Structure formats: C-alpha cells, structure tokens
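Something for you to look into today, if you have time. Could you write out one complete protein record for me, on any chain you like? The space below this message is yours for that.
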Amino acid sequence: MTLIESTPVAEETEDICVTVPPTHPRPAGGDRYTISEVAAFTGLTAHTLRWYERIGLMPHVDRSHTGQRRFSNRDLDWLAFVGKLRLTGMPVADMVRYAELVREGEHTFEQRQELLQQTRRDVRARITELQDTLAVLDYKIDFYAGAHAHRASERAS
C-alpha cells in the first residue's frame, strides 16, 4: 500500500497521508463540499469538523461568498489521515503539532518522522498487549469448550 501525505495549506505543499488512490465522492475539479456533505462522507459530526478547524487540526477551509465552509478533496484526504492517527491513539495535541509541522514546510520532515515513529512504537506496544490479551481469551474459550464437552459426555454416560 502506497501512502501520500497532504494537508490543506495556502501554498501548494504536497504532503498527504492517505491510501492511494483516494476515493472521493466527486472527481477533482468538482470538489467543493458543504460541512454536512463532509460529515456524511467521513462519519464525523459538523461539530467535530468545526472543532478540528478551531484547534488547528483542520487547517484553513475555504469559504463560499456567504461564509459557508467549502471542503475540498484535499481536505477529505487530510481528514482520512487524521482518522488513522486517531485510531493509533495519538493524543489530539500531537495530531495538532503534526499538522503545524506540515504547514511549516519541508524543513520539519525529521520532526514529523520522529513523531510518527513514536506513534508507531506506541501502536506496536498496544498490539503486543492485545496479542497477550487474545491469548488469555483463547485459553478461557478453550477451557469452557472443554468443560462443556466433558459435561456433555458425562450426561451421555
């Protein structure tokens, strides 16, 4: 799976993190979405989208002449990446820091890499913990299956 990274920024800095090819509701060029369309597409609430923008996690979103937010495919790509970061358990403050680093430009590549490497270490530790938990569950399930089979054979006798 190939990853690209991008965040909506004033400059055309290409820096996206989504699976390729991204799936968008509308093709490039027809990519202006209302907040309710983005909420329906992403599963996030309008309140959450506004909060992301307010805290700097969702950088500048274009506005229509009436002041309504108009999201782009690039914004959708960024939100998909933020969703992946959320799944890692990355704290919101770290996600905001990552977004700030992206907006600062290429000279922050090393800092971004470091932040993502720490997140990967955390995810791997959680995976190990979950594998240990799964082993305990498997043991207990096998125990109960064996106990059930033993009781069934006693009844048949």
About this structure: The chain has five helices and four strands. The beta strands are 3-4, 18-19, 62-63, 69-70.
